[in-house]
Specification:
The chain is an alpha+beta fold and 222 residues long. The protein has seven helices and four strands, in the order H-H-E-H-H-E-H-E-H-E-H. GO terms for molecular function: 5,6-dimethylbenzimidazole synthase activity.
């Protein structure tokens, strides 16, 4: 007879007690979108370990479509920076008045300061997963990469590292600059390093761009 609490596989699941759950909630709350980094180098083995954790993220059909590119070459980093600067200038033109002034005061990237740059792609040509779960919602392949990014983000925060997700970029231009296969779809560009300052509130809340919504305002019952 199996011991109480054991699954059918014969292994007891880990016990996540109240203290762990409280720490997990604290970790989620401290997952900040970091834009200001110290120049302190980050050990590449530590990044590899975090990416290995990210690879434990859920994915549709177990397709595991994430592809992470470590961007180290100065010329490629410069191309990404140029890409951001042009897209950022175009984005500013969408705002006017006080909102435009506030936009110019926000720090929206840490490309110059972050010691580690990682570009996350979705391999749309991968045959892993054999199409399971994607017939009616093929976009779930992209969502799978997002779950891996979030897993990496939380793991990095637990390791004392900060992560900034840079989205003000032209995907096609970035894909070309990094010379990756044409069937890789760009998902996100991550700046990683040790934060030079810590805040519990997100920068966009702190500067009055957008407050947090009350959780119950986003939940409907049917």
């Amino acid at each position: 007879m199996a011991d109480a609490g054991h699954g059918t596989g014969g292994f007891a699941p880990p016990v996540f007690d109240a203290a762990f759950r409280a720490r997990l909630a604290e970790l989620v709350a401290w997952r900040r979108d970091v834009r200001r980094f110290l120049p302190t180098p980050v050990d590449r083995d530590a990044i590899s370990a975090l990416l290995a954790l990210a690879a434990q993220a859920p994915s549709v059909g177990n397709a595991q479509p994430w592809r992470f590119v470590m961007v180290d070459e100065p010329s490629r980093r410069a191309a990404v920076r140029t890409n951001f600067e042009r897209c950022n200038a175009e984005a500013l033109s969408d705002y006017a008045g006080e909102r435009a002034q506030l936009y110019t005061r926000l720090k929206l990237e840490g490309l110059a300061e972050a010691p580690v740059h990682i570009a996350a792609f979705c391999d749309e040509g991968a045959d892993t997963g054999h199409g399971l779960g994607r017939r009616t919602m093929p976009e779930t392949l992209h969502y799978s990469v997002v779950t891996a990014i979030h897993t990496f983000w939380l793991a990095a925060r637990a390791a004392g590292l900060g992560v900034g997700w840079i989205s003000i970029l032209d995907p096609g231009e970035l894909t070309a600059a990094l010379d990756v296969p044409a069937h890789w779809r760009f998902i996100g560009y991550l700046c990683v390093g040790y934060p030079c300052e810590e805040h519990l509130d997100p920068e966009l809340v702190r500067h009055g761009w957008q407050d947090r919504l009350a959780p119950d305002s986003t939940i409907l019952e049917r």
